Amino acid sequence: MLRLLHRVLTHNRITSRLQRALVHRVKQLLYMPDGYYSMGQIYRKIKPAAILDIGAHHGYTVDKLLDYAPGAKVHAFEPTPQSAAILRQRMSKRPNVHVHEIVTQSPFGQVQEHLAEVQVQAMTLDDWAEKFEPQGMLLLKADIQGAERLLVMGGKKTFARRVAAFYTEICILPQYESQATFCEMNRIMVEQLGFALYDIYPCQKAGPGAAAGFTDVMWVKPSVLPLEE
């Protein structure tokens, strides 16, 4: 019943905004970090050219980002045709949201096997940024089911020079073939690309009483810190 209520509240644009404000307040009282709120803080501080939501699905994460960064220009990426169609329909009255039916990946890698049954258009982040958003800083949010390494390898120039924050889901338990690990991603982001690890968010369990299945992580450029509370 509670899960059904949560689904109804979060999938309505008006009630979702109220629900997120309440959840954020509760998190503040419990000293729990809120990644989307932090993305909004960074947006207000540096005024980037755009926010990239890579793996936007039906756009509910776009709603979250815009709740904390009203008026931001958002590029929403969703490679699967059915989900991209729903995303376009939901964002049709938001001229600041641009939908891209592509997957961003490394030029040396293959699209993850879990997308193999669907033919999708692929482009590296570096190539996409040069074509569609060539100037200004960027904020990135990603939910791409273990393909984080492919995203970063195909966007090293963009990450190094233009990305101010990278907020992404990271799998902890093995779920996808060749999935990226937290240790691997942290080494790439910190040692190779000059980011600082900003936060590791509460883990989601694989099941009731089970081991941690996945979590969200945020890396930011040191020049962005500190963020105002």
How far apart are the first and last residues' alpha carbons, in Å? 34 Å
Based on secondary structure, the structural category is alpha/beta
The CATH C-level name of the largest domain is Alpha Beta
CATH architecture of the largest domain: 3-Layer(aba) Sandwich
The helix content is: 25-40%
Order of helix and strand elements from N to C terminus: HHHEHEHEEEHEHHEHEEE
CATH superfamily of the largest domain: Vaccinia Virus protein VP39
Q: Got a strand count?
A: 10
Note poorly predicted spans: 1-6, 108-114
CATH topology of the largest domain: Rossmann fold
What integer value in Å does the Rg equal?
17 Å
| Percent of residues in beta strands | 15-25%
- The figure for the number of domains is 2
Overall mean confidence score, pLDDT? 88
Task: Note the overall shape.
Answer: globular
Discrete helix count: 9
Task: Name some characteristics of this structure.
2 domains; alpha/beta; Rossmann fold; two-stranded parallel sheet; globular
